[in-house]
Amino acid sequence: MDGYIHKNAVAYSTLLFSFGLMTSIFNFYYVKLFLSVYGISQYWFNIAQLIYLLWNAINDPLFAYWQDNCKIEIFRNRKTAILYGAPFFVVSFLLAWFPWGDYNETKWLAGVHLFVSMACYDALYTFILLAHCALYAEISPKHEDRLRLTKYSQVAGMLGSSSVMLAEFLCDGLENMRAFQIYVLILGVLGWAGMYYTATNVRTAHDLKSASIPQYLPKSDASPDPTVTSIFSQFIQVIRRKNFILFVTINFLQIFHNYYLQNFLSIFADELIPSRAMPKLVKKLLYGGSNLLVPVLVLCLSPLVAKRGYYKVLLWSFYFKVGTAALMFIFGYEWHWLLVLFFLCDRSLHKAIFNFFNLAVSDIIDEDQREYRRSHPLSSSVFGYNALFTKPAQSLAPMMIVAILEANNYQDRLAEDMSVAQHEALKAAIFSVACAIPFVVGVLQVIVWRPYSIRDSHRDDNKVY
Questions:
Q1: How many C-alpha atoms does 355 have within 13 Å on its Cβ side?
Q2: What pLDDT is attached to residue 213?
Q3: CA separation for the pair 76, 78 (Å, rounded)
Q4: Residue 240, Cα to own-chain centre: how many angstroms?
Q5: Which one of 76, 327, 365, 366 has the minimum C-beta count within 10 Å?
Q6: How far apart are CA 97 and CA 275, in angstroms?
Q7: Residue 225: pLDDT over 80
Q8: Biggest alpha carbon distance in the chain?
């Protein structure tokens, strides 16, 4: 069994290497690309984000339901979904980095480009990620095995997330756009190769059970086609459970915090930490190092999660988030090295803790299966229903931050047409946001997470499907 889990952990985590290569680049640079390089206006940025928010809310539960209930092989079979979705995902990743025309003459075109890029990227990302997340719950029901999957995933993620640091050193970020475009093409090819390996090599507990059933035994009749009533009933059964509601709430807040950090860290650091204060190398190490530190933290925290459970570790991280934000605000943004440490801790610890959220979702899936005596877990559906309520945070975070930047004349800053007083006001606003978001998010997460009741799954390795 250990060999089975080891091989599956390698195959499972290889896809996260591919995701790390591409998603790290996309999330870190796309806002800066459209704001600073393409010069998109706030109006078209918000229009694109609003339309994307609606699309984002629809496609997650739709894909989730298809993957759990549809009889078409590409939707029903997790590995087939990854295999055939991979090349389309790579194409969607590449859409953003190549301009479609002169955005100075056609302002609306930048908005269309942004929406199409985000919508295509998220649709394919969701399609593959739901299948991959479902594999997490279906490879093994044991907490120990799932924690091993998390550890392997972090090693793969650490290698993949190095793409941001390499971009900073090889292409100087977005400064050398031609080199950057060649770089993302190479990442796309590597990303497809990793997803192909996962799709052709991973195995689930259900695969083993199916293989152990004698071939001469008759197969049971196919389940009847689901009705609208059964679909709605399944949806209500999942979303009304207390633990699901509590988890979705903290996950929404975590995603909001996560996308603020991914999309605006480089913009905030460029404004708050002047070049004269420290070498440019330090910023590059901050941007790339915060990604590389995440897997190290996950590996270090995994024994603590195994011993104390993810519930307590998550709760402690929320308290830490509140404390560090309060201390940074007290010191102020003139303490540049302390600010670098704060950004590093805020991003790396936040993302490290986020990697343990799948443990909670898997427990919620198991709880749902036991409660309603389902023959198979609703893995994709639960992940999809979770995404239905949490994905809007991906749009709300950049919309809110861009509105604050525009209110403080950020476009004038890009055009280098800003007085010293205006620049100081912009820096003060950015610093306030940088401290307020982790503080407020952390306080809300502490309040919401405390009543969560699945706290001892790390002590129970006897769960079965």
A1: 33
A2: 42
A3: 6
A4: 24
A5: 327
A6: 27
A7: no
A8: 81
pLDDT, one tens digit per residue, over 298-334 is 888 888 888 888 899 999 999 999 999 999 999 998 8
The contacts of residue 452 (CB under 8 Å, 6+ apart) are 243, 246, 247, 311, 360
CA 309/CA 315 separation, integer angstroms: 10
Residue 265: strand, helix, or coil: helix
Residue 210 in contact with residue 30, Cβ under 8 Å?
no
pLDDT score, position 207: 58
Provide the CB-side half-sphere exposure for 57 (13 A, CA).
11
Mean pLDDT of all residues in 405-425: 78
Q: Retrieve residue 252's tokens.
A: 């929404």
Contact 200, 83 (CB under 8 A): yes
Q: What Å distances lie between residue 367 and 97, 127, 453, 465, CA to CA? A: 43, 24, 11, 11
pTM of the model: 0.74
Q: What is the spatial distance between Cα 426 and Cα 126, in angstroms, rounded to a whole number? A: 36
Q: Which two structure tokens, joined as six digits, stand for 14?
A: 């290889």
Residue indicated by tokens 């059933």: 213
With CA atoms as reference, report the closest residue to 195 among 39, 77, 366, 22: 22
C-alpha distances in Å from residue 130, one per residue of 71, 159, 216, 258, 325: 17, 22, 33, 19, 33
